[in-house]
C-alpha cells in the first residue's frame, strides 16, 4: 500500500530499479490511496495525484483516488487485509492491520520501490512482546486510554522492532475498531507490528467484507511460544492524555483539568470510526462547542461518514458548531487544513503529538480519546469526561 504522499517516491524508485517500460511484480497485490492531501491543496499535490493516477492506470493497479478515506481504515474495510497476510505500507501506522491477525508494518518509499519491482523484502523476525489488558474498562474509558497508558509505561523506544501482541480479557471484549486503535499505535512505542490473535470477533468482521473468506490462513500463537509479557489491570484506569511533545509523556486527564485549548480534532486512522464519533456525540449531548474553540470532525472513511450521516451524528456536530469534513487525514500530520498557529493548543484523537506535527512548532498537541476530546470541545479545556 502507498498513499499520495509516499507513493510518488516509490514510483520514481521503481522505474529507476526496473526501467521505464517495466511492470510491477503483481498489480493485484498493490493498492494506492489518496488520503493525506485530498482534495489537492497545492499544485505539487495535484501533480502527485496526476502522476499516481497515470501510474495506476498503466500498471493495472487499484487506485482509491476518489477520497474513500484514510488508508488504514479503507484497507481493512474493503477486504484487503486478511489473517495470515504479510502487508507492507509506506506509512508507519500500517501496523494497524494487525488487529485482524495480519503481520503488517511500515516501510520507506525506497523499500516499497523494491517491493513493486520484485515482490520481496528482507525482514528480521521480531521478538514478541505480549501486552495484557485485564479487567473491564470503566465508563467513558476506551482502548485509546489503554494504549496511551501502555506507551506511557513502556516508553517511545521500549518495544523497538518487537511484535506487540495485545491480549487479555479486556482486549478479547473489544470490537475490531477498538483493537485497531491499539495496533495502530504500536509504532509509538517502537514496535515493528501490532497484533491481536484472531478470534470470532475478527472473523465476523472479515466475513462481512469478504463473504468467500475460508479462514485457511488464520494463524495463532504457538502454545510454547517464547515472549516477554507485561500486564495492566484496566478496571480502574482513568482517561489518559499524552502531553506535548511526546507520545509517551502520559498522565490522567484529570491531572490536566483546566488546561485551555483552541482546537479539538476528532478523527484520524486512530479514532475516526463511527464508534468514536458516536461516543463523542454522547458525551457532548447537544451542548455547543465552547466559544473560542474550533472543533474539526473527520470520519475515517466514506463508509464511516455515511454511517454517521444516517445516524444523525453529522447534524449533531454541525448544530454544535463543529466543522465536519470529508474523509481524509486532515490536520493529523499538518498536511492540509486545520493547522495550529503559534501558541495554540489542540486536543486530538490522532496518534502523534510531535513538535510541529499539526502546524506551528510553537503549538501544543495533546492526544486523547474521543470521549476526552468531546469533553474538551464543550468546555474549552481538558477535563476528565466522567466529570462533565
Automatic annotation (TrEMBL):
Cofactor annotation: [4Fe-4S] cluster
Signal peptide boundaries: none
Record-linked Pfam families: Aconitase
A Gene Ontology molecular function term of the record: 3-isopropylmalate dehydratase activity
GO biological process: L-leucine biosynthetic process
Pathway annotation from the record: Amino-acid biosynthesis; L-leucine biosynthesis; L-leucine from 3-methyl-2-oxobutanoate: step 2/4
Record-listed [4Fe-4S] cluster binding positions: 269, 329, 332
Key words of the record: 4Fe-4S, Amino-acid biosynthesis, Branched-chain amino acid biosynthesis, Iron, Iron-sulfur, Leucine biosynthesis, Lyase, Metal-binding
Co-factor binding comment: Binds 1 [4Fe-4S] cluster per subunit.
Enzyme class, broadest EC rank: lyase
Source species, domain of life: Archaea
Record EC number: 4.2.1.33
Known role: Catalyzes the isomerization between 2-isopropylmalate and 3-isopropylmalate, via the formation of 2-isopropylmaleate.
HAMAP family associated with the record: LeuC_type2 (MF_01027)
Name of this chain's protein: 3-isopropylmalate dehydratase large subunit
Species lineage: Archaea, Methanobacteriati, Methanobacteriota, Stenosarchaea group, Methanomicrobia
Gene: leuC
